[in-house]
Amino acid sequence: MSLIIDSSVTLAWIYHDERSPPIERIFDIVTETGAWVPAIWRLEVANGLQQGIRRRRIDKAYRDQALADLIDLKIDIDPDTHAFAWSDTVDLADRFKLTLYDACYLELAQRRGLPLATLDGDLRAASSSLGLQLLGD
């Protein structure tokens, strides 16, 4: 099974104090079968780690190691995120009152017919409304 992972799940895996059995299972799946992410995922994850540095939760060495660990996983960047940004993605954002950033994960999961791994409540509710399989709880 392949899946879509968002930055909330990724950061929960990186920050050990946020890890849980469901997060561990998701990354077991990622290790075994890979995952897909929209084009903004790397920026969102890096930003989450930058915030961790600013809040003195982690240091730069921890950030750099976390990013190196992610590079080793089979996480594919969707090449078509931008092609749907001003159509399907914006429509989903309007319909479910999501940010465009969150809606691009929803659009990708819907388009690829894959489960979505997220901890975001609004994104989970929208996914449920569309009948998408959810992981992360």
Descriptive key words:
single chain; alpha/beta; Rossmann fold; five-stranded parallel β-sheet
Report on this model:
Helix content is 62%, strand content 9%. It has a single domain (3-129), classed as 3-Layer(aba) Sandwich (Rossmann fold), CATH 3.40.50.1010. It is of the alpha/beta class. The chain has helices spanning 7-14, 21-33, 41-54, 60-71, 81-96, 100-112, 121-129, and strands spanning 3-5, 35-37, 75-77, 116-117, 134-135. The chain has a 5-stranded parallel β-sheet, sandwiched between helices.
Radius of gyration over all CA atoms, rounded: 14 Å
Under the CATH scheme, the architecture is 3-Layer(aba) Sandwich
Q: Given the C-alpha coordinates, what overall shape results?
A: globular
> What is the percent of helical residues?
55-70%
The total count of helices amounts to 7
Number of domains: 1
Following the backbone from N to C, one meets helices and strands in this order, namely EHHEHHEHHEHE
What's the CATH topology name? Rossmann fold
Mean pLDDT: 96
The N- to C-terminal Cα distance equals 17 Å
Q: How many β strands by DSSP? A: 5
Give the structural class.
Answer: alpha/beta
Low-confidence stretches: none
The largest sheet has its strands arranged as 3-2-1-4-5
CATH superfamily: 5'-nuclease
**Largest sheet geometry:** 5 strands, parallel
CATH C-level? Alpha Beta
Beta-strand fraction estimate: 5-15%
